[in-house]
Specification:
2 domains; globular; mainly alpha
């Protein structure tokens, strides 16, 4: 009787142990799966923060040529042109490291805007008809890179900046502000405020105000809609487009103050 009991206990114990181990293993797998199901939220939140940093950097870099490059290029155009090589070198240096790749990518797109600004404002600023052709100097390179699916953040930033420039120039043509552009580039600094005031009168007409509203709505729409895609290159594009409104508004305030 005792032998039968012992043999029965010995036979059943491995099975029970195996069942317990199986239950424990299944619970562990379920816990691991539950943990992993929440883990993507961390990289997604980091990516989201970085996307908004890219957006802010794009806004800043559109403002740089206006408020930083302009004083340099008027007095030292050759230096401004040479700085393009520095921006390109710095961008490739940053792109060589995974942690800073996105910033190098963005800076490479910015270098095209800087190059165009150095050429136009340094030697061709008296003729507004040359503005868009020169600003488009990096367009073939940007399109080729996007076709190859390379440098998306920087090249989309450049395209957004270029689109903002195109719409601003279109407004100048529609409202007939190009003559004032030519005048202000040729006269002495003390005469510039009067020219700005004359241009402001043109902007304040119903025609000028209507087109300002239309183009501002276009910029807002084109700049905001891509942000819903939650990708860094669209944040760079949106930041560049929307910053055009900021820069144009600052120019308008300067004209009013003059």
């Amino acid at each position: 009787m005792i032998n039968n009991t012992l043999s029965s206990y010995a036979a059943s114990t491995p099975i029970d142990t195996e069942l317990n181990l199986a239950d424990t293993g299944q619970k562990s797998v379920r816990q691991l799966e539950s943990t992993l199901s929440f883990s993507p939220s961390l990289p997604l939140s980091i990516s989201g923060r970085q996307s908004w940093l890219v957006f802010a950097a794009a806004v800043f870099l559109v403002s740089v040529p206006v408020f930083i490059e302009a004083p340099i290029v008027r007095s030292l155009p050759s230096l401004s042109l040479a700085l393009t090589a520095f921006w390109v070198w710095l961008s490739f240096t940053l792109m060589s490291r995974p942690a800073t790749y996105v910033w190098g990518d963005l800076l490479l797109g910015f270098s095209w805007s800087w190059l165009a600004g150095a050429i136009y404002w340094g030697w061709l600023r008296w003729e507004p008809a040359w503005h868009l052709p020169v600003e488009s100097i990096g367009l073939p390179f940007a399109c080729w890179c996007l076709f190859k699916n390379w440098g998306k953040v920087g090249n989309w930033f450049y395209l957004g900046s270029l689109l903002g420039t195109v719409l601003t120039d279109v407004y100048f043509y529609i409202v007939d502000l190009m003559p004032y552009w030519r005048q202000i580039m040729r006269v002495d600094a003390e005469l510039a405020p009067q020219i700005l005031q004359n241009a402001l009168i043109q902007v304040q007409t119903p025609w000028g105000q209507s087109w300002a509203i239309i183009l501002a709505l276009v910029l807002l729409t084109v700049g905001i809609l891509p942000l819903g895609r939650k990708q860094r290159h669209w944040y760079a594009f949106g930041g560049a487009v929307l910053s055009t409104i900021l820069v144009d508004s600052l120019f308008l305030l300067a004209a009013i103050a003059a």
